[in-house]
Design goal:
By secondary structure, this protein is α+β, with helices and mostly antiparallel strands. Helices cover 30% and strands 43% of the residues. α1 crosses α2.
Amino acid sequence: MLAKELSGRLDDQTVMAKQMTLELKTSKFEILFKQHTFHKYIYSLEDIQAGALKLLDALWPIKEPTRLIGIKFNNIRLRSSQAAES
């Protein structure tokens, strides 16, 4: 559901991103994160889901209960007619 919302927001703003960060906050307020830079700019639901799962797998297992999961994007630019160029 989070990936779908983010994909919709990127689409609404006609932007794409090249870097994704997955951030987790544990019940003890410890912050864990992983970041990935893609070879191309992304905005599709499939790319966001695949990237987020890859980052979650890299952080797993998490020893504490999780109180927050967030996904953020960096290296954002407007989409042109050649949408996913690098």
